[in-house]
Specification:
disordered C terminus; FAD/NAD(P)-binding domain; FAD; oxidoreductase; 17 strands; binds flavin-adenine dinucleotide; 428 residues; single chain; 36% helix; monooxygenase
Length: 428
């Protein structure tokens, strides 16, 4: 990407402009709703090309709710992160990826191997263009926040916006407002920004429910791991309930990697663990929808244990040995394709526009891809005029709709073909 404004902003200028809260001297100011993976990556990318950015996040802090553990990332994420992160942070990202997965195995509940796909050993799983790795979500989020402390505003729920001759006025739940030239709704599947921009957009509940948990690797739990689980991602099929597992063992402990590569950055330690996901329709989990919604981690864990009661004893024990308080429920939702809309000063990225089933492990990958593409479009706009800004947004949206909704369709197809989200058969 050719930086349009490569001149770095000094901390003094930066603070002054942040206090003013609006664009000056024809310089672009972007407001991002949502400090999820897509919004944070966008902020990193904009910062890198000298565009001012403020990220407004509803949560009051980065760790106030569980956000998941393991994420599979591929070349879409690799290329996007390489583009958006400063080189040192990208190196830190590569150092803290998971150990390579050698194989993807589908097994029966009784551990009979049904299908195996061996990875391409000739490709570097950590290079941007051939990335194929797992990451610890918290580590990735911490990395994406690095250097943005003064740009991320927690406890700032966006409730809507108004467009006027000067730009966009962003409204918050506390009655406050902020101004920007461009508002990006990166506020996830229930996006407030999308509801105002595209009130006709539909996000469907597929009926899939996923109980998500993790079991720390100790001498006892390691001894229970069937061989296939040590090799890579596994899916267990049979009956109305699926189980998917992935080991997370980072290449280097995040605090040590940060000390080596970017000592000013604090990363939390990440334990070795087995991520597991019990997937089914609500009725196959043996709970009414209303019960599931209200269930606390202990009740969800109990449901997960019950759901796998006919699985091999080692699998049952692995689920039973989980960190109970880390168990949570994911409701699987999928967006319907939205026909092209006229571009303007408000746009969307990630789950806010193309939420999808996790059946192919694509949601985070496309959110990061969107962030990099939008940065590039903004960097390449022909001048500082509002028309050029809207043109750049239009160019971004045209491509984003194509690959974004193609990924939604592929994920939906994978879910349908397998009959339930749980088998994750077509993930890679
Ligand atoms: C169980 C599970 C497993 C998954 N595994 C994978 C995988 O392996 N690989 C993969 O690529 N994808 C995976 N995904 C999908 C991936 O997690 C999402 O697609 C990705 O997090 C989307 O990023 P985002 O930035 O668009 O949204 P989010 O990460 O959802 O971030 C949205 C942010 O906006 C904030 N917000 C919401 N409303 C407001 C508001 N009004 N104002 C301000 N802030 C607001 C939220 O608090 C949140 O921080 C998985 C999903 C699930 C559920």
């Amino acid at each position: 990407m050719t930086p349009r404004r490569a001149r770095p902003i000094t901390p003094a200028e930066d603070g002054k402009k942040a206090r003013m809260g609006e664009a000056r001297n024809g310089e672009l100011r972007v407001a991002v709703a949502g400090a999820g993976l897509g919004g944070l990556c966008l902020a990193q990318g904009l910062r890198r090309i000298g565009i001012e950015v403020d990220v407004y996040e509803r949560d009051t802090g980065p760790d106030i709710r569980p956000q998941g553990y393991r994420l599979h990332l591929d070349a879409r994420a690799g290329l996007a992160l390489e583009r958006c992160l400063p080189p040192r942070l990208f190196e830190l990202f590569q150092a803290t990826c998971g150990q390579p997965s050698r194989r993807f195995t589908v097994l029966s509940r009784r551990l009979r191997v049904l299908h195996e796909v061996t990875g391409d050993s000739g490709q570097d799983p950590y290079a941007p263009g051939t990335l194929s790795t797992s990451v610890h979500r918290r580590t990735l989020r911490e990395l994406l926040c690095a250097g943005l402390a003064d740009r991320i505003h927690h406890g700032r729920a966006v409730t809507g916006y108004a467009i006027d001759g000067q730009g966009v006025q962003v409204r918050f739940a506390d009655g406050d407002t902020a101004r920007a030239d461009l508002l990006v709704g990166a506020d996830g599947v229930h996006s407030t920004v999308r509801r105002q921009l595209l009130p006709h957009a539909v996000v469907e509940d597929t009926g899939g429910r996923c109980l998500y948990g993790r079991t720390l690797l100790t001498d006892r739990t390691r001894a229970l791991l069937p061989a296939a689980l040590l090799e890579g991602f596994t899916a267990f099929v049979g009956g109305g309930v699926g189980l998917a597992t992935g080991l997370v063992r980072l290449r280097e402990q995040p605090p040590a990697a940060a000390a080596r590569l970017a000592p000013e950055i604090r990363l939390s330690p990440a334990p070795d663990y087995l991520m597991w996901a019990v997937t089914a329709r609500a009725r196959d989990l043996g709970a009414a929808e209303s019960e599931l919604e209200k269930a606390d981690p202990a009740a969800l864990h109990a449901l997960a244990c019950r759901a796998v009661r006919t699985f091999h004893a080692d699998l049952r024990e692995l689920v039973a040995a989980a960190e109970v308080e880390q168990t949570f429920l994911a409701v699987i939702r999928s967006a319907e394709r939205v026909p092209a809309w006229p571009p303007g000063r408000v746009t969307l990225l990630g789950d806010a526009i193309h939420a999808m089933s996790p059946a192919r492990g694509s949601g985070a990958n496309t959110a990061l891809q969107d962030a990099a593409l939008l940065c590039r479009a903004l960097a390449e706009r022909r001048d500082d005029s509002p028309a050029a800004l809207v043109g750049a947004v239009g160019a971004y949206e045209e491509r984003m709709r194509d690959y974004g909704f193609a990924a939604v369709a592929a994920s939906r197809e994978a879910e349908k073909r397998t009959g339930r989200v749980g088998s994750w058969l077509f993930r890679r």
